Amino acid sequence: EKGNHRHFMAKEIYEQPEVVGHTLTQYLDMVAGKVRLPFEAKFDWQALSRLSVSACGTAYYAGLTAKYWFEKLARLPVEIDVASEFRYREAPLPKDGLALFVSQSGETADTLACLRYARQEQQHVLSVVNVTTSTIARESDVVAPTLAGPEIGVASTKAFTCQLTTLACLALAAARARGAITAEDEARHVQNLIALPGLMAKALELEPQIEALARELSKARDVLYLGRGTSFPMALEGALKLKEISYIHAEGYPAGELKHGPIALIDEAMPVIVIAPHDALFEKTASNMQEVAARGGRIILITDARGAAECGITPEATIVMPDMDPLFAPIVYALPIQMIAYQTAVFMGKDVDQPRNLAKSVTVE
Ligand code: M6R
């Protein structure tokens, strides 16, 4: 049921504060300010030399975001690849290693093939899945459920933010088990996680501004998305969402790669969506933005009040997000990114819930 919404995708975007909140209740002891996983980890986080992650599409971008968290918080090296590449690579895997799979449906053929390869190579298998009765869930040693509820829209929205939330909690659990963070750090991170649903609700209030922006974006032939650090996977996700449902060509790039090629594309017709909360990397991204502005590129900046004040240029539009700790900011910044794609596609009259050529779950290669 779509309720008051025009599309399942809109309903699912709006459900995010609630389902992320629900996911958090399953992974945190809110009173104690600690992570509490809803399963028994059958592997030893401390003994791991590496984590191997594979997934497809949006689930892959969730995994890519988690790489930053596992490496920063838990000091655990992460190798990540799209499942269709990993499955044929014959990658050597460490003895007693841990392989992590991320999938909404739990039925994606390439991801399942990677899981079976990992098993054959004697890896422990952990999967972050939304459908807990799925094949991937059944074939895993440990299942970390995402609790997003059924996702109907082909474009993943709430499953993505619930994957991110679950992965953030797993990274914190790994950090504690590996002695990489103090109890005070853990409590602070837990507080920041608890704040997410409220921040997401605030981000949803940006919809009218995004609707106006979408009219402009609908005229574009190509759109470039830029971000650094954890905003880089958000740039990839933003581009995928826009392509999937509006059919506008879009690309996501790490902001620092701009001058290694894509800057050649910049002209007055090219919208460039820059995702840049005011974090430790902000100044670097701001200087990339200035390079785009100097070449007449049309910048749409997604940042916070401080970033808006310190970006050093006048963007065509600035989406000002609420202030938050930067570490888990992608979980909130995903929302304007989804709304941009949604509003653009709706304005263009596209079938957002059933985009052409796509299936909700890709069970063939
Ligand atoms: O069910 P899965 O999470 O394994 O699906 C993976 C991708 O097919 C999926 O995320 C796809 O990219 C979505 N349509 C993105 O919106």
Automatic annotation (TrEMBL):
Subcellular location(s) per record: Cytoplasm
Enzyme Commission number(s) from the entry: 2.6.1.16
Source organism (scientific name): Bosea caraganae
Main localization of the protein described in the UniProt heading: cytoplasm
Subunit-structure text: Homodimer.
GO MF term set: carbohydrate derivative binding; glutamine-fructose-6-phosphate transaminase (isomerizing) activity
Catalytic reactions of this protein: D-fructose 6-phosphate + L-glutamine = D-glucosamine 6-phosphate + L-glutamate
Name listed for the protein in its UniProt record: Glutamine--fructose-6-phosphate aminotransferase [isomerizing]
Parent-record interval covered: 244 to 608 of 608
SIS domain mapped to chain residues: 39-180, 213-355
Primary enzyme class: transferase
GO biological process, one term: carbohydrate metabolic process
Keywords assigned: Aminotransferase, Cytoplasm, Glutamine amidotransferase, Repeat, Transferase
Function: Catalyzes the first step in hexosamine metabolism, converting fructose-6P into glucosamine-6P using glutamine as a nitrogen source.
Active site: K360
Cellular component terms (Gene Ontology): cytosol
